[in-house]
Design brief:
Elements: H1 20-30, E1 32-36, H2 38-46, E2 51-57, H3 65-70, E3 76-79, H4 81-88, E4 96-101, H5 108-112, E5 117-121, H6 127-139, E6 144-147, H7 157-162, E7 172-174, H8 190-195, E8 199-203, E9 210-211, E10 223-227, H9 236-241, E11 244-247, H10 259-269
Parallel strand pairs: 2-3, 5-6, 5-10, 6-7, 8-10, 8-11, 9-11
Antiparallel strand pairs: 1-4, 2-4
Helix pairs in contact: 6-10
């Protein structure tokens, strides 16, 4: 379907993509998520997500012809680059966008079933860091991810793109939402992990931190690793709720790594060995 008007209501879901706060509300209200880039669109479809529409420039039509043929009832919106940029707010240079049905949220119990290694993200609000953590989790044997109430949306467009679509392959759930009377359950819900047989460890610099390469850490059959926001790190309340604190041994006077880089190091070192 050729677009001629950037205000065409049929492509409203693709508008103002650079406004992250607006998109978080709008995407949830519309029950959608947006997959960005041809590769990510294909991975979303391969994971079983249902498309509502596709949105791409003329030059990418042939490269996704097989996708369109497999979904003949789904509209394909196309147009010149400048018009599509007026809709989205940025230049489309990664192939395509697709609006997909947002899946039903998974329960914590569901994502923990059978898991041996779990990442718990506390207040990780940067979409780039969140997506990079998911990509490392998928690559390095993390079985599930739990996301605290103040963390970013794993199904936000940028999070998905940075994860290269691996967010579709790692089970995740939002944990610790406020109860019916407005009281936050976080970080108290870490007790659910302990009840399920997990040792809960925070990745944080502290006087009593255990070095990440301590062989004793490998003996934990089920281990949940808590990662905090860039800068503030894991909150004191959450540290108090953890069983132990671990730290990456550093050299040359460096005291920390970006949370995404630190997660990759920790996931590798703490992976199940047997």
């Amino acid at each position: 379907m050729e677009l001629t008007d950037p205000a065409d209501p049929r492509v409203e879901v693709y508008s103002r993509l650079t406004d992250a706060a607006l998109r978080r509300r709008q995407d949830t209200e519309h029950g959608i998520f947006l997959a960005e880039s041809s590769q990510v669109v294909r991975r979303a479809l391969a994971a079983g997500h249902a498309p509502r529409s596709f949105f791409l420039a003329h030059r990418y039509l042939d490269s996704l012809a097989d996708v369109f043929a497999a979904h003949p009832g789904v509209p394909v919106f196309t147009g010149p680059d400048d018009l599509l940029q007026q809709v989205t707010g940025f230049h489309l240079h990664r192939g395509a966008l697709a609006a997909m049905d947002r899946p039903a949220p998974r329960s914590v119990d569901e994502v923990l079933a059978g898991a041996r290694r779990v990442a718990v993200l506390e207040n990780v609000s940067d979409h780039t860091n969140l997506g990079a953590i998911f990509r490392s989790a998928a690559a390095l044997g993390v079985d599930a991810v739990l996301v605290s109430p103040e963390s970013a949306d794993p199904l936000y467009r940028r999070s998905i793109r940075v994860s290269m679509g691996t967010v579709f392959s790692v089970p995740w759930a939002r944990v610790g939402e406020a109860d019916g009377r407005g009281r936050a359950a976080w970080p108290g819900e870490l007790e659910r992990l302990r009840a399920a047989g997990f040792t809960v460890a925070a990745l944080e610099l502290a006087q009593d931190s255990v070095p990440l390469d301590d062989p004793a850490l490998r003996g934990h059959e089920r281990l949940a690793l808590v990662l905090g926001a860039e800068g503030p790190g894991v909150t004191p309340e959450t540290l108090a709720a953890c069983d132990l604190t671990v730290a990456i041994p550093m050299a040359a006077g460096v005291d920390s790594l970006n949370v995404a880089a630190a997660s990759a190091v920790a996931f590798w070192e703490l992976r199940p060995r047997g």
